[in-house]
Amino acid sequence: MTILIIEDEPLVAKNIEKLVRELHPNALLHGPLASVENALKWFDEHPEPDLILADIQLADGVSFDIFQERPLNCPIIFTTAYDEYAIRAFKLNSIDYLLKPIDKQELTTSFDKFQRWQKTTSSDFFPSQLQDLLNDLKPHSQKKYKHRFTAHHQRSVVAVADVRIAYFVRDEVIWLVTTDHQRLITDYQSLDEIEDLLDPVQFVRANRQYIVRKDAIESYRTHYSGKIELLLAIPAKDEIVISKDRAASFRVWFEE
Length: 256
What we know:
Keywords: DNA-binding, Phosphoprotein
Protein name: DNA-binding LytR/AlgR family response regulator
GO molecular function: phosphorelay response regulator activity; transcription cis-regulatory region binding
Oligomer: single chain
Domain Response regulatory: 2-115
């Protein structure tokens, strides 16, 4: 069995290699490849592997870009530090994913699933499943996003235009904070629900607690760890940090 590892964090890649060798000592490992560019070059020079373990966030983009350019017949196990939208898509499309840090038992389960699929799936299963996933994750140019959100102000319900929103924050309930410093309670149950309604060109899911509008970000600074701290025009009571895994894609989004 040949396995290709696509991962831009050396320590994570080393751990994945270690786990794979413990579970399948006879497997032929390729990689790790740390970027979309390197992966595309690898596919130009090598036959398709039996299985791919691919991180979502890479040094120069996201691994989905690789599979847009190179349609594949083999299954892919995606890994991610945190990407709820992608996780929901994987569940819908039956392509496995693992949350970092990678757990040996979960990887074992993924390999078991892979081996069952090898015995039962038709040759066109993975290409069609992967294409469905990629279609789900493409920017939805025709999707209609929500531009007004209702929230509670004293005893009234008010409508807030998206251009007046600085950020949403989860703090026991979901709060909407406006550009004029109003802090309003919404009826939403989770940030996931709100994230699906927002234009991803204008809003970014910073972490589990915050969704931030681009125009509300005055600047950002990079920590020595690789994480990014956002500095907002409307200060939040917490430090708003984007993980190292998502830093590269955030920079691309912020510059667009």
